[in-house]
Design brief:
Nucleotidyltransferase, domain 5; 5-stranded mixed sheet; binds zinc ion; 3 domains; Arc Repressor Mutant, subunit A
């Protein structure tokens, strides 16, 4: 009995070393053996044993490092491929994420009002994938693969991916958590233990890490930053409450306000000129140009956005004292200056002790983080549960 127990724990020990190395190589493509030995506090003999085993099995390969020596380790690209689908309130993005950390964007379409219309596109691309990761800017039930409330596409409420005709295994999450997962592992938030990523598209979602662990909440509904109260000025929200951040600080809300000002004949700057005073002519590109030319009325609207975000952020930063908050989504693509504006604005809304060392930064992939992050979930699941050959 005793002997048997020792045998089992040795097996577990070997397996945990193997998985730790596999995960380290996945998260740090190009890492070298001695670096893993140091980071994981593992003898070089142990590292060599498992690395040789993985190379033999075709799971990892050695590539040239910067000095041209074949010592940099990466997972083999085709070992595993996960399709990432990011379903936003306005746009849906699809791409393929490979085990070596590379990503290929495959498609981008307008999110249809009827969820069934999107399924043929997912079915078309899932053929080349081992699994499918889906992120939705909605409150979701990950275990049941179902959408609870999709504030910007209420026709999707209650939709189940389980019966949607997708043949590969599906992993469902929120766009906020998916984007945060990508930024934490490979992007801007990598150096921080306590941090948050905020995605501002048509809706607003966040993903929060405390001591390197994603906070999911009792009901997997943590991170609904868009429905944090910001200012009464924001008015009634699609969720049924009043004053939600999402109702004032998104690009669609900025456009809506500027269009109204233009209709009322109250716009006189670059934006009005570029649109020929016709609100229907306002595009994202025109909005970007009017920002580049510092149209004072456009900039005044972004100031409202900044103030609303700073107000909503104050509660979270005061309570949790994170080291960093990064921002992504269409908002950062259109107005990258938001990051600097916020750095100033939070000094007025957040305790000095909590804002002094707070880093506010743009995400590494403002438009694709949620799509890559959606695929990362099944990819990590595969690595964490891999049987190996120990
Ligand atoms: Zn709301």
């Amino acid at each position: 009995m005793h002997f048997f127990y020792i045998l089992i724990s040795m097996r577990n020990f070997a397996r945990s070393n193997y998985l730790a190395l596999l995960k380290e190589i996945f998260l740090n493509p190009g890492i070298m053996r001695y670096e893993m030995s140091e980071r994981l506090d593992m003898s070089s003999a142990t590292v060599t044993k498992y690395v040789e085993m993985m190379i033999r099995d075709g799971i990892i390969r050695e590539a040239d490092n910067h000095k041209g020596r074949k010592v940099a380790l990466t997972l083999t690209k085709d070992w595993y491929a996960a399709l990432g689908v990011d379903i936003g309130g306005y746009q849906t993005r699809i791409g393929m994420f490979y085990a070596d950390g590379s990503f290929t964007k495959l498609d981008e379409v307008r999110t249809p009002g009827d969820p069934r219309e999107l399924m043929p596109l997912i079915q078309k691309y899932e053929r080349n994938a081992d699994t499918v990761g889906i992120a939705v800017t909605a409150v979701v039930d990950a275990a049941e693969q179902r959408i609870f409330i999709f504030a910007n596409q209420r026709t999707w409420d209650g939709f189940s991916f389980r019966t949607a005709g997708i043949s590969k295994p599906v992993f469902l999450t929120t766009s906020g958590n998916a984007a945060a997962g990508y930024e934490k592992r490979f992007g801007t938030l990598k150096p921080y233990e306590n941090c948050m990523h905020v995605m501002i598209g048509t809706g607003i979602q966040a993903g929060l890490f405390i001591n390197n662990t994603l906070v999911e909440g009792a009901n997997h509904a943590a991170g609904e930053f868009g429905h944090v109260f910001s200012t009464a000025e924001a008015g009634p929200c699609t969720c049924g409450k009043v004053g939600c951040l999402e109702n004032i600080a998104t690009i669609s809300m900025v456009q809506r306000r500027l269009e109204k000002q233009m209709r009322d004949g109250n716009l006189r700057g670059t934006l009005a000129m570029l649109c020929g005073n016709d609100p229907s002519k306002m595009t994202i590109d025109i909005l970007k140009r009017s920002i580049a030319e510092n149209d004072p009325q456009v900039m005044a609207d972004f100031k409202r956005v900044t103030e609303a975000i700073a107000a909503a952020l104050s509660g979270i930063v005061n309570v949790l004292n994170p080291e960093a908050v990064s921002f992504g989504g269409r908002m950062i693509d259109v107005y990258p200056g938001l990051v600097n504006d916020l750095q100033q604005a939070v000094r007025l809304t957040v305790l000095e002790s909590n804002s002094k060392h707070l880093t506010i930064a743009a995400g590494k992939e403002p438009l694709l983080a949620a799509c890559i992050g959606a695929a990362l979930i099944p990819m990590e699941h595969r690595i964490n549960t891999f049987g190996g050959t120990t």
